[in-house]
Write a structure and sequence with these properties.
Blueprint (H helix, E strand, L loop, with lengths): L1 E5 L4 H12 L3 E6 L18 E5 L14 E4 L6 H6 L1 H22 L2 E7 L26 H21 L3 E6 L2 E2 L10 H11 L3 E4 L5 E3 L1 E2 H14 L4 E4 L4 E3 H12 L5 E4 L14 H7 L7 H16 L1
Helix pairs in contact: 1-6, 3-4, 5-7, 5-9, 7-9
The protein binds nicotinamide-adenine-dinucleotide.
Nicotinamide-adenine-dinucleotide (NAD) binds next to helix 1, strand 2, helix 3 and strand 5.
Length: 310
C-alpha cells in the first residue's frame, strides 16, 4: 500500500508514518513545517519506503504515481498554535482539506480526516457521542480551529456522498506522548516541562475542569483500524478515563519528583469545562479501546522531555 500523509512532520503524522512504514507500506509525506519539525522525520531519511515533499497543502497537491490512501493530518493543533495562526488554521482546514480530498479522488484513494473533539466545543452533553452536534462559538477565538474542522468534516461527507469517495473521519481527543514540543502549549507538555524545569505548574481556573488523555500508540492503533476497516461515520478515539487538570498536575509532580508549586490563572475564553469521549462506536466498529494507563504513558513522555531539555 502507498499512502500520502499530510502534516507528516508533526507529532501525530510522524508516529503514523512510522506505523505504516513498520507494517511494510510506503509513505509519501508532506509538510510545510509551520508547527512541525524535520527532527520528527529525520530517522526516516534514506528509508526507501519514505518520500518527503515540503509543501503547503492549502495549495494544489500533486503526487506522482498511485496512492491507496490519503491521511490528512496537516493543521496547527494546539490552542497556542491556532490562536497564533488563525488564518492558516482556517485555510488548511478548509482549502487544505479540499485539496487533500481532491488528490484522493483523482487517485481513487481512501481518505481519512484527522478531526477533533473540539467539534463538540464546550459540550452540553457528557460524555460526547458522535451523534452530538456540539456547542461551538463560531466568533470566539477558538472558532478558527473548531469551525475549520467542522467545515472539513462537512466537506469530507460531501465528497463521500456526492463523489462516492471512501472516507473516514476520526475525532481525536487529547493525545500525548514522545515528540510533543516543549512549547506546544497543551496541558500535558506544559505541566511536564514546568515540573522538569522546577517552574510553577499553571492551572487555569480551579483545576476542576476535566480532560481525557490518550497515549499516542493507542491512538495510532485506532487510526489504523479505522483506516483499514472502519466506517464513513465519524468515530471518536480517546480515553474515556476522565481526570481533572488538578489530578494531572499532581501525578506529573509525583512522577517527575519535582518540587514545583501549582499556581492558578484565570480560565481562557471558551475553555471546555468537561471533555470525555463516548467510545461505544470505536469499541463496536473497530474492537478498539485504549490500553496504556496514564501513569505508564506519562513515564515515556517525561523521559522524552528530559532528553529534549538536557
Ligand atoms: N494531538 C492531539 O491531541 C490532537 C487532538 C485532536 C486533533 N488533532 C489533529 O491531528 C492533526 C495532527 O496534530 P498534531 O498534534 O500532530 O499537531 P502538530 O502541530 O504536531 O502537527 C501538524 C503538522 O501539520 C503541518 N501543517 C500545518 N499546516 C500545514 C499546511 N498548510 N501545509 C502542510 N503542512 C501543514 C505542521 O507543520 C505540522 O507538522 C491535526 O489535524 C490536529 O487537528 C490532534
Amino acid at each position: 500500500m502507498r499512502v500520502l500523509i499530510t502534516g507528516v512532520a508533526g507529532f501525530l503524522g510522524s508516529h503514523l508514518a512510522d506505523r505504516f512504514i513498520g507494517a511494510g507500506h510506503e509513505v509519501v509525506g508532506m509538510d510545510n513545517f509551520v508547527t512541525g519539525s524535520p527532527d520528527n522525520i529525520a530517522h526516516l531519511t534514506g528509508n526507501g519506503r519514505f518520500a518527503f515533499f515540503e509543501h503547503n497543502v492549502t495549495n494544489f497537491i500533486y503526487v506522482e504515481g498511485a496512492l491507496d490512501g490519503v491521511l490528512h493530518f496537516a493543521s496547527p493543533a494546539s490552542p497556542r498554535d491556532y490562536l497564533e495562526l488563525p488564518i492558516q488554521t482556517l485555510k488548511v482546514g478548509s482549502l487544505g482539506t479540499h485539496k487533500a480530498l481532491g488528490i484522493a479522488k483523482a487517485k481513487g484513494a481512501r481518505f481519512l480526516l484527522a478531526s477533533t473533539s473540539e467539534v463538540y466545543g464546550d459540550p452540553l452533553v457528557h460524555p460526547q457521542p458522535e451523534g452530538y452536534w456540539g456547542n461551538v462559538n463560531p466568533v470566539g477565538p477558538r472558532g478558527v480551529y473548531d469551525e475549520a474542522k467542522r467545515f472539513a468534516e462537512a466537506m469530507t461527507m460531501a465528497y463521500h456522498r456526492f463523489h462516492g469517495l471512501d472516507t473516514r473521519i476520526v475525532r481525536i481527543f487529547n493525545t500525548y506522548g514522545p515528540r510533543m514540543r516543549v512549547r506546544d502549549g497543551r496541558v500535558v507538555s506544559n505541566f511536564v516541562v514546568q515540573a522538569l524545569k522546577g517552574e510553577p505548574l499553571t492551572v487555569y481556573g480551579d483545576g476542576s475542569q476535566t480532560r481525557s488523555f490518550t497515549y499516542v500508540d493507542d491512538l495510532v492503533d485506532g487510526i489504523v483500524r479505522l483506516f483499514e476497516r472502519g466506517t464513513s461515520e465519524p468515530v471518536n478515539l480517546g480515553n474515556p478515563n476522565e481526570f481533572t487538570v488538578r489530578q494531572l498536575a499532581d501525578l506529573v509532580l509525583k512522577l517527575t519528583g519535582s518540587r514545583s508549586r501549582v499556581v492558578r490563572e484565570p480560565l481562557p475564553q471558551d475553555d471546555p469545562k468537561v471533555r470525555q469521549p463516548d467510545i461505544a462506536r470505536a469499541r463496536q466498529a473497530l474492537g478498539w479501546e485504549p490500553k496504556v494507563q496514564l501513569e505508564q504513558g506519562l513515564e515515556t513522555t517525561i523521559a522524552h522531555f528530559r532528553r529534549k531539555l538536557a
